[in-house]
Amino acid sequence: GGTGAPHQDYSQTTAPTILATLAECGAGATIVGSDTGGIVSNVRALAGTDKCPVTFSRAWTNTPFCIVTKVSTQTVSSGVPFITAINTSSFGVSGLQSGESFNYWCAGRV
């Protein structure tokens, strides 16, 4: 086992940040959660090379493993979220239609 505190623990409550601008996640986008999990709501349409970057409140020691799932009332044929890039400081999500939301969950080694 390692020594010291884990990177993230269940009491960590500081939310990561998103760029809630028209050019990034969308002017109405919001985030609630922590570095290990949360929800990003009301994103703009994200397709092709467009992405919504989520920046961790505290960088991981090693690149974490993250998953994203869609939370939406839109039709099944709407977008499917996917991670476009990930590193110790952030990850990007694409593949959603305007107004949709996604959950994220991240874990990793310290």
Structural Rg: 14 Å
Protein structure class: mainly beta
Could you state the order of secondary-structure elements as H and E? EEEEEEEE
Helix content: under 10%
Strand order across the biggest sheet? 1-4-7-6
Shape annotation: globular
Runs with pLDDT <50, length 5+?
Answer: none
Mean pLDDT: 81
Task: Describe the fold and architecture.
The chain is mostly beta strands and 110 residues long. It contains no helices and 8 strands. The chain has strands at residues 17-18, 30-33, 37-41, 52-55, 65-71, 82-86, 90-94, 101-107. A hairpin with a 3-residue loop joins strand 2 (30-33) and strand 3 (37-41). The chain is globular.
Give me the secondary-structure topology.
Elements: E1 17-18, E2 30-33, E3 37-41, E4 52-55, E5 65-71, E6 82-86, E7 90-94, E8 101-107
Antiparallel strand pairs: 1-4, 2-3, 3-8, 4-7, 5-8, 6-7
Summarize the structure.
The chain is an all-beta fold and 110 residues long. It contains no helices and eight strands.
Which key features would you list for this structure?
single chain, 110 residues, mainly beta, 8 strands, 0% helix
